[in-house]
Amino acid sequence: MAIQEFGFGTQIRKSPYFDATLRWGAKGFCVYNHMYIPRDFGDPTQNFWNLLNTAILCDVAVERQVEITGPDAAKFVQMLTPRDLTNFAVGQCKYILLTNAEGGILNDPILLRLEENRFWISLADSDILLWAQGVAINSTLNVTIHEPDVSPLQLQGPQSVKIMQALFGESITDLRYYWLREYNLNGIPLIVSRTGWSSEIGYELYLQDGSKGDELWETIMAAGAPLGLQPGHTSTIRRIEGGMLSYHADMDINTNPYELDMDRLVALDIEADFIGKSALKRIRESGVSRKHVGLLIDGPPLTGPNSRFWVLEKDGQQVGKVTSAVFSPRLKLNIALAMVGKDQAELGTRFDVQTPNGKTTATVVEKPFFDPRKKIAAT
What we know:
Elements: H1 18-23, E1 28-32, E2 35-40, H2 44-53, E3 55-59, E4 65-69, H3 73-80, E5 93-95, E6 98-99, E7 105-107, E8 110-115, E9 118-122, H4 128-137, E10 144-146, E11 151-156, H5 160-168, E12 180-185, E13 188-193, E14 202-207, H6 213-224, E15 229-232, H7 236-241, H8 277-286, E16 290-297, E17 310-314, E18 317-328, E19 333-341, E20 350-355, E21 358-365
Parallel strand pairs: 3-15
Antiparallel strand pairs: 1-2, 3-11, 4-9, 4-10, 5-8, 6-7, 8-9, 11-14, 12-13, 13-14, 16-19, 16-21, 17-18, 17-20, 18-19, 20-21
């Protein structure tokens, strides 16, 4: 049966897996990095349980790569991030922040070091290719910056290890958390990393030839069929349970790392003069006026994630906003992430909040809500 053409024109790109996701039941898409990403394979709660109990395969080709090469590549990459990359080894991945001159967060990508002078910045949703190329123009550093033909898939969940063994053999079990390895799967060129946006054990497979997207998708689904693999999408429920942040929701260009308690990703004592260093020094010395916190929201189960920022009030005054909220069927709680005034960030602080279910109360609690030390993902 022919699949009806979907799209709004060529200005929004389709991934190499787009047709496969339609065949496998994708019903709705969002736009992310100027590309379609599948966000609906049916019941999101079932997608959550599939992730927890078996495994899901997600088209995340929207995580575009910015490739940086050249004799000064390492020096240039350090200029972009406040995280200390001194001991960043070839074959390693790191979660980093990219900051502007005011210390605002431009993106929170995964950085991959494929060779001594070859890096990929695996992006959240913002135009870092343009930023990096603009920085390079006036940097006097010898680097080349472009977007390669690379499109990631995420294979996440407890059965992902066995599926990967079926595809690549026993050696895949030696791949450590936040490390990468190059593979060739029956002529399909891949970089495989032990990473993923799920808080569960899993892998990302970076396809290096877009013409083989359909073949790769079907190969993985066939290998995973005996183990219960399902097509899916990144789970909002699981990522909020794990306290994972979403760019444009939980942070943006006006958010700094200290508001998110991400001090560990800011190394002000290194020699490198990264972008935003002076501003981040001032912010650390003067302190912040707001903090990102976890919330429990009272009332009946939320019917879906929030599609707008819900206002938080205390004594009739606005003191913050809910940035991400969802009902967790495992915890049987409405859980949320929120940005609030520093004076309202203490555990146990209560707020009034207007949700689609009506006006209710919310309480500041510890986050993440589940597996706070990421023991599952790092297994």
